[in-house]
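Reminder to self: tokens first, then the designed residues, so the page reads top to bottom the way the pipeline ran.
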């Protein structure tokens, strides 16, 4: 038993030493796997070290800012209704969907799905504990959801008064998001979490703001075009439907948000954080 613990300790020391060797690449050179992983672990640890109130406020800000994606979705849906086929409208929403994500990520607010793999890496690297991860996830999710509730109330009140969309549009979008069975929503959310974890990894790999904008647009547009379920955007979409339409029940909302959060977390953790970290570990082992 003592030998096993010693071997694990030596293995962890080798991993840490290899990460320390990773230096920042020159401006015209692509970052290595180790460099990206080191940056992600450092950024993740910095989030753990923040004041809980700061984390909650940053998460609340992200929940509010994602509302700008929802605002444009509603406006575009309403503007194109009756002019083009509804399935064409749904696909075209991918052109405006990325805006909120660009604002959040470049503005460095804390979004659950973008931070899922980032916050998991320090746990995998044995620098943070699982309970601390779950506590941090809870804070981030609470802030994101609360921000989403606030912006949903504001937009469903303001939209009809500005005549930029109506409540029927809100209902159609909410029904479109929730019309699938639970297994489909969960599987869809896992893929969305995978893409968002990959987004975090690719943003860390990029070296300038324009590259980051392109990456964010590309990944989140894929989410929208394919209809994959994102828990934080979906929170605004479904909650707005809940407070304005009898077609969306409280059970519909709770079922959706639980499955979407679970799926997004699994996707970000398993397919990005775990696999990329283990790939590095096996490379260190030789």
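Designed residues (286 positions):
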């Amino acid at each position: 038993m003592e030998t096993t613990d010693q071997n694990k300790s030596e293995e962890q020391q080798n991993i840490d030493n290899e990460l320390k060797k990773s230096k920042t690449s020159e401006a015209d050179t692509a970052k290595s796997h180790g460099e990206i992983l080191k940056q992600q672990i450092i950024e993740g640890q910095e989030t753990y070290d923040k004041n809980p109130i700061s984390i909650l406020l940053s998460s609340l800000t992200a929940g509010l800012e994602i509302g700008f994606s929802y605002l444009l979705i509603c406006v575009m849906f309403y503007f194109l209704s009756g002019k083009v086929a509804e399935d064409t409208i749904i696909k075209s929403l991918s052109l405006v969907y990325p805006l909120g994500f660009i604002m959040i990520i470049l503005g460095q607010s804390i979004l659950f799905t973008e931070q899922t793999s980032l916050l998991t890496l320090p746990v995998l690297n044995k620098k943070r504990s699982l309970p601390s991860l779950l506590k941090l996830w809870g804070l981030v999710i609470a802030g994101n959801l609360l921000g989403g509730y606030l912006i949903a109330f504001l937009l469903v009140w303001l939209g009809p008064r500005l005549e930029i969309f109506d409540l029927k549009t809100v209902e159609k979008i909410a029904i479109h998001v929730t019309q699938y069975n639970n297994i489909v929503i969960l599987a869809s959310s896992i893929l969305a979490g995978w893409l968002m974890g990959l987004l975090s990894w690719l943003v860390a790999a990029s070296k300038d703001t324009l590259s980051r904008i392109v990456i964010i647009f590309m990944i989140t547009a894929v989410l929208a075009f394919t209809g994959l379920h994102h828990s934080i955007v979906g929170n605004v979409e479904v909650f707005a439907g809940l407070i304005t339409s009898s077609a969306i029940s409280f059970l519909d909302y709770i079922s959706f948000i639980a499955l979407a959060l679970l799926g997004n977390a699994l996707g970000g953790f398993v397919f990005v954080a775990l696999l990329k970290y283990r790939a590095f570990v096996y490379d260190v082992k030789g």
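The CA atoms of residues 11 and 285 lie 8 Å apart.
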